[in-house]
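Customer escalation, tier 2.

The customer says the design service returned an amino acid string that "doesn't look like it belongs to this structure." They asked us to rerun it and document both sides in this ticket. The original structure tokens are below, unchanged.
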């Protein structure tokens, strides 16, 4: 067994099938209470944690993670913004990952790429003064939602 327990390890420990463990972990309630008890004990004993990254690649599943890229961590406005977004995200069952681009367009692009690699469900962006690539065109080809604020946010003509 590896250092990180898997659902297979839980199934073996609880003496049940993998599908039963999967149903338990995913919150289904139509499981025999005796089996559910054994699975719960095996999870605690082994220290099993769900792999949300793996779950998020299945159709219809999401990571329940949002990203926030701000341009300057030292700016007090951004701490208020971060706190507001984090509070709202938590109320909706999401985890917020925040990062600072330090007003560097290249760093900003790296952070966008990393968050996309983490399969976040959405990204809030405060673009740096000198943006790298145009994320507006890029996000149109992506599956996620983006929201932008700040002085370099493009304005729509009405």
């Amino acid at each position: 067994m590896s250092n990180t327990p898997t659902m297979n390890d839980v199934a073996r420990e609880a003496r049940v099938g993998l599908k039963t463990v999967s149903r338990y972990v995913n919150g289904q309630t139509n499981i025999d209470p005796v089996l559910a008890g054994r699975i719960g004990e095996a999870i605690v004993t082994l220290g099993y944690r769900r792999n949300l990254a793996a779950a998020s690649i299945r159709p219809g599943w999401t990571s329940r993670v949002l990203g926030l890229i701000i341009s300057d961590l030292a700016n007090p406005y951004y701490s208020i913004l971060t706190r507001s977004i984090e509070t709202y995200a938590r109320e909706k069952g999401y985890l917020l990952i925040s990062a600072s681009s330090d007003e560097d367009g290249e760093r900003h692009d790296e952070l966008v790429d990393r968050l996309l690699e983490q399969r976040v469900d959405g990204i809030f962006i405060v673009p740096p003064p000198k943006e790298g690539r145009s994320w507006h065109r890029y996000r149109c080809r992506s599956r996620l939602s983006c929201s932008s604020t700040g002085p370099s946010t493009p304005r729509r003509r009405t």
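Tier 2 assessment: The sequence is consistent with the input. The chain has two domains: 7-50, 65-148. The first strand starts at residue 65 and ends at 70. Sent an explanation to the customer and offered a walkthrough call.
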